[in-house]
Amino acid sequence: MLRPERMSKVSVTGAKAYMDPVVESVHELNLLHVTEYGGGWEGFVQGSPQSGAEDAADKLVTVRSLKSMLGVESDDAGPTRVLDDDELTAELEELREEVNALDDQRDELRSQLRSVEERIEAIEPFAELGIDLDLLQGYDTVQVAVGEGDRDTVERAVLDASSLTEYQVFGDDVLAVFAHPERDADENALTDALVSAEFAVIDVPDVEGDSVSPESYVDELESERRSLESDLESIEAELDSVRADAAGFLLAAEEKLAIEVQKAQAPLSYATTNNAFVAEGWIPTDRYTAFKSTVQDAVGSHVEVEEIERAAFGADGDVQVREDVPPAVEDAGPDEGVEASDGDEAEQRRAVADGSGGSVVMRNDDPPVVQDNPGLVSPFEVLVQAVGRPNYREFDPSVILFLTFPAFFGFMIGDLGYGILYGLIGYYLYSNFDSQAFKSMGGVTIAAGIFTAVFGVLYGEFFGLHVISTYFWEGVVGLSSAPIHKGLQPADIYWAQAWLVVSALVALVHLNVGYVFGFLEELEFHGPKAAITEKGSWLLGMNGLWLLVFSRLAAGTAPSFIYTVFDGTGAAPEATGEYAKAAFALGFNGFPTVVGYVGLAMFLVGALLLLLGAPAELLEIFDVLVNVLSYTRIAAVLLAKAGMAFVVNLLFFGVYETEGEYHYMLTHGPEYYAAEYGAEAILFPGLAHGGVAALVGGLLILVIGHVLVLALGVTSAGLQAVRLEYYEFFSKFFDGGGTEYEPFGRVRRFTADE
């Protein structure tokens, strides 16, 4: 779970005459993550595609084009089928001709429809004007302009034009201007005069016939549009019918052709001679025996399958840890169809020991990574992969995110109502999208919603209202209040301070896990010295500094409340009643002074180790203080989100204060509480207690406000939790950059093997 699945590099070497059945069997297994041959072996060249690869690729392009035209989706598939080559070729050609013809007709109709709609849009202003189109054009001695503008401004511009003698303006928003120019005036005299009037000219459409009214012209165009739309619907219906009939065939054809292309192009990754080939790649170690037996069952002793290394990789990219894998090489002799020189060369490339138990390989590539997490944890892989897939040498932090990210998020929001909504959003993402990324985000959101709801019950809040506290914790359980509080109210200052300290303690646990992961990685791949100086130094420095902070030695420097939140006396002596009691009554008021000196010594030793291992990083030693303090944003966001929900509810319900506690006016109006506690106790009377207009406006504020709080919960609590995971936690041990495991093969969904 913390480590990826163990991988082994294997080599498949044999006579070139048997390469096709090897490709078939390896493809069927769907296990081998192929290592690309990039050259470097004397006498070997990159392999060539098998015959038929180009034809299959062309057909695949055609199939995918037809799928796009018809809008075929994976859900449209019918039962699996077997397609032979002749059937596929004939049916594909027939379907291509039919679909292309219908698609051409559809494109032509869409083009005509766009043209008609543009003409309708162009004629609509003239319909508003109400003047026949033939009256707006065709004059010899009168100039006409139609457009949009301010009538008074247009009239003033025409009146001031010296080249125009008479004019008439018709219309209000859409104007038609008729003007008689001087005898020697320019043919654009009216247009020039209207430039200063900000007059937007509209071209008069050319129409045939006399006395054509804009209204009748629009009617003709509308009739033409309806006819085109009807024809287009008929074509769409034909295409839908073709789609229904051909969907299964296209999906099956795409799958069959994709497999053929994949197989045909496989030799491009192999190292080959005239008579031999070598293929290498990675498979899960526990599948090696099955892989070898299946390949050799297919072609017998004509190929040699060998496990050439089982590797974990160091940070520098070189093989650091590798089990000794016996070569067990069997020569592919001339009697098996390989010339002696070629067989000897292939064997030489596979079997020359490099001194570490393995064989010479095509390329020292990193093993692909298969994250090995159970079902509940696997959705959190998407958060890890947003930074990068883990390297093969690294711990996979998905399980830590599973344990911490939803808890951070839920603690900061802490509301049953919001938790239910987040859970529903997550369920929608998980159940309505085929994309694995969306499903994973749905799973993460569901987990965040569950924790938000759980903390909401503990806080006693439902959309910011303390109804759970009133009716459950007080009414059913018999407590005086909810078990924990957010610390927003004056009487709850203890809780706000307590959460700051708790955030720092959570940070120490979280960061210690990260440093321990980094220490173990350094220990495994670079030895004890590197582990102690590179990671042990930070472990000592951070824990030593915070032992000092929580000791009485720092009592005059550190905030006083960090010594009182756990001592049973509380941090708010001015509070009264239940709120004056400290919830975390552990009797702790700081470590003894001697522990502080021990912590200081640990910090100095950590700094010295860092100086020995990475002198340049010594200047960053106080990051161990800053990194932990960064986690206090958990408490800050908790108060901020609580404050936002409080304001939304305050505006609608109204709030009064008594004994340092805020209470919503859920059952009575402000007059009742003013008489009970005095007018000064009313913080805001609430829109719900005003008139009808205030009530309607208040409801809008209530709904929109809580929607905003819900959305901002993602951008504040969500992003802050992610930041703590990525920046603070991951930086202690995680680099990412791992290679995704992409085995050669394909899981058949739409076809059955012949």
UniProtKB/TrEMBL annotation:
It comes from Halobaculum halobium. Residues 327-365 are annotated as: Disordered. It is found in: Membrane. Residues 85-119, 218-245 form a coiled coil. Pfam families: V_ATPase_I (PF01496). This is A-type ATP synthase subunit I. One of its GO terms (cellular component) is membrane. Belongs to the V-ATPase 116 kDa subunit family. The keyword Transmembrane helix applies. Residues 332-345 have a biased composition (Acidic residues). The chain crosses the membrane at residues 399-430, 442-473, 493-517, 538-555, 594-613, 634-656, 692-714. Its main location: membrane. One of its GO terms (biological process) is monoatomic ion transport.
